[in-house]
C-alpha cells in the first residue's frame, strides 16, 4: 500500500487533511509539523506521497522534496501566489482554498502514476532469441556507422522508438532495412 505523509506547520491543518483522506479510503502513515520529521519518516518507507504546505518551521517544501528518498512524490497545497511558483516543476500542486474533490482527484492521479511506475519496474519484456539478434544487429550498425558505444546505440534505439511510437523491435528492423 502507498504511504502518505502529511506535513504542515499547524498540526490542526494536517489532522484535518488526514481526516479527509481517511474518510476517502487513503492510508495516512504519518502527520508531521516539520520537514525533518517528514524526511526521517520517508527514509524508513519504500515510497509514497508527501502532502506539504509551503513553509515549515525548518524548511520550505522544495527543500523537503530534495531530501525525499527515491520513490516519493510531493503534493504541495499552496496559496494562489505560491501556486504559480510551482508550475512546471515535478511537484504536483493544489491551490488554496482547498477543495476536497480536487485534493482527492489529484491524489488518485498521483497514486495511479506511482503504481504504474512500480508495475513497469517489475515487468521486463521477454525477448526471443530472434528479437535479441535483431536488436544486436541494429546496435552493431549504429556502432560501426556512427562510432557509438553499445550503450549509446541502445539508448538511441530506445529514444527513437519512444519518439516515433513504435516498439524497439520495429525500430531496429527499420534501421536494419535502411542499411
Architecture blueprint of SSEs:
Layout: E1 3-7, H1 11-23, E2 28-32, H2 35-43, E3 48-52, H3 61-67, E4 72-78, H4 80-86, E5 92-95, H5 100-122, H6 129-146, H7 150-164, H8 168-178
Parallel strand pairs: 1-2, 1-3, 3-4, 4-5
Helix pairs in contact: 2-3, 6-7, 6-8, 7-8
How would you explain this protein's 3D organization?
This protein is α/β, with parallel strands linked by helices and 179 residues long. It is 58% helix and 15% strand. The chain has helices at residues 11-23, 35-43, 61-67, 80-86, 100-122, 129-146, 150-164, 168-178; strands at 3-7, 28-32, 48-52, 72-78, 92-95. A 5-stranded parallel sheet has the order 2-1-3-4-5, with helices on both faces. It is elongated. The termini are far apart. 26% of the residues are buried. The mean pLDDT is 91.
Give the count of helical stretches: 8
Number of strands: 5
Q: In terms of structural class, how would the helical and strand content be classed? A: alpha/beta
**How much is the average pLDDT?**
91
As a whole number of angstroms, the C-alpha radius of gyration is: 22 Å
Helix content: 55-70%
Low-confidence stretches: none
Tell the overall outline. Answer: elongated
Q: DSSP strand (E) fraction?
A: 5-15%
Instruction: Give the helices and strands as they follow along the chain.
Output: EHEHEHEHEHHHH
User: Main β-sheet, in a few words?
Assistant: 5 strands, parallel
| Termini gap | 49 Å
Main sheet strand line-up = 2-1-3-4-5
Amino acid at each position: 500500500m502507498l504511504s502518505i505523509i502529511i506535513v504542515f506547520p499547524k498540526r490542526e491543518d494536517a489532522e484535518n487533511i488526514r481526516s479527509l483522506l481517511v474518510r476517502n479510503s487513503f492510508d495516512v502513515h504519518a502527520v508531521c509539523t516539520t520537514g525533518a520529521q517528514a524526511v526521517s519518516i520517508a527514509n524508513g518507507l519504500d515510497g509514497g506521497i508527501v502532502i506539504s504546505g509551503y513553509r515549515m518551521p525548518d524548511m520550505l517544501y522544495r527543500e523537503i522534496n530534495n531530501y525525499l528518498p527515491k520513490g516519493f512524490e510531493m503534493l504541495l497545497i499552496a496559496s494562489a501566489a505560491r501556486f504559480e511558483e510551482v508550475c512546471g516543476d515535478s511537484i504536483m500542486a493544489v491551490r488554496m482554498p482547498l477543495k476536497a474533490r480536487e485534493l482527492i482527484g489529484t491524489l488518485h492521479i498521483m497514486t495511479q502514476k506511482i503504481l504504474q511506475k512500480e508495475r513497469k519496474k517489475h515487468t521486463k519484456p521477454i525477448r526471443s532469441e530472434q528479437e535479441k539478434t535483431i536488436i544486436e544487429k541494429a546496435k552493431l550498425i549504429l556502432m560501426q556507422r556512427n562510432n557509438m558505444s553499445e550503450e549509446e546505440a541502445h539508448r538511441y534505439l530506445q529514444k527513437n522508438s519512444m519518439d516515433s511510437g513504435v516498439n524497439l523491435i520495429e525500430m531496429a528492423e527499420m534501421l536494419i532495412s535502411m542499411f
